[in-house]
Amino acid sequence: DAKTTQPNSMESNEEEPVHLPCNHSTISGTDYIHWYRQLPSQGPEYVIHGLTSNVNNRMASLAIAEDRKSSTLILHRATLRDAAVYYCILRLGAGGTSYGKLTFGQGTILTVHP
Amino acid sequence: EADIYQTPRYLVIGTGKKITLECSQTMGHDKMYWYQQDPGMELHLIHYSYGVNSTEKGDLSSESTVSRIRTEHFPLTLESARPSHTSQYLCASSDPGQGISEAFFGQGTRLTVV
Q: What is the SS3 assignment for A7?
């Protein structure tokens, strides 16, 4: 299974942009890049996903490197409610017994200061 | 709005008891997952299912068992609870799309075995 590497923790100030990096150098051509976050005492929630092109939604933006070996989750204006653990996950593509598995790593703990 | 429910939210039980953690979803998703998470630690996939009568072991070995008799229901059972089983158990579901579908998580069951 392709693995991801994220910094253990990052800090930001409220109202400032946050760039959360993720390395996935062994990504395969059919792997989708997913981001989830887990707020304290809650289950994870979906943030965004992409394959090759950059993606935007109401929560965040996802910038994917041209070689797909890294990606960056961008929170345009961090709020206190964005303090969470952010997980970068490779969603295995079709075929094989691992199809569709969702495997989490350690994630990045984001602290947002007022 | 996620329609996936776990019961109970909290359970304190004595050693040796048989327990079943319930997970139900009303979204008609084929894929369902069980994760185990200790406080401050990462999520570990312990079981997953691709549909009715399909169950697979996850990445972390677990003494629990699961069944999938109905699409909407994916219960997890511990035949004889031990203190080492104390943890949070999270259930999730997703559409069978080719790596593109988001997963929805329940609120979790926090199990304490005394």
A: coil
Identify the residue whose tokens are 């080492």.
B84
What are residue A78's phi and psi, to 5 degrees?
A: -65, 140
Q: Residue B90 and residue A30: Cβ atoms within 8 Å?
A: no
Which residues of chain B make contact with A43, given a CB cutoff of 8 A? 90, 92, 105-108
Q: Name residue A7's amino acid.
A: P
Give the per-residue pLDDT at A28.
86
Question: B20 with B76: CB under 8 angstroms?
Answer: yes
User: Which among A34, A93, A98, A89 has a CA at the least distance from the CA of B43?
Assistant: A89
Going from the C-alpha of B32 to that of each of A82, B22, B74, B96, B108, the distances in angstroms are 27, 12, 7, 10, 14
How many CB pairs (< 8 A) connect A and B? 60
pLDDT digit string (tens) for A14-72?
999 999 999 999 888 888 899 999 998 889 999 999 999 999 999 999 999 999 999 99
In degrees to the nearest 10, what's the CA dihedral of A27, B103, A13, A110? -70
A34 shares contact with chain B (CB less than 8 Å): yes
Maximum Cα interatomic distance, chain A, rounded to a whole number of Å: 47
pLDDT classification of B15: cutoffs 50, 70, 90: very high
What's the pLDDT at A91? 80
CB distance B4 to B104 below 8 Å: yes
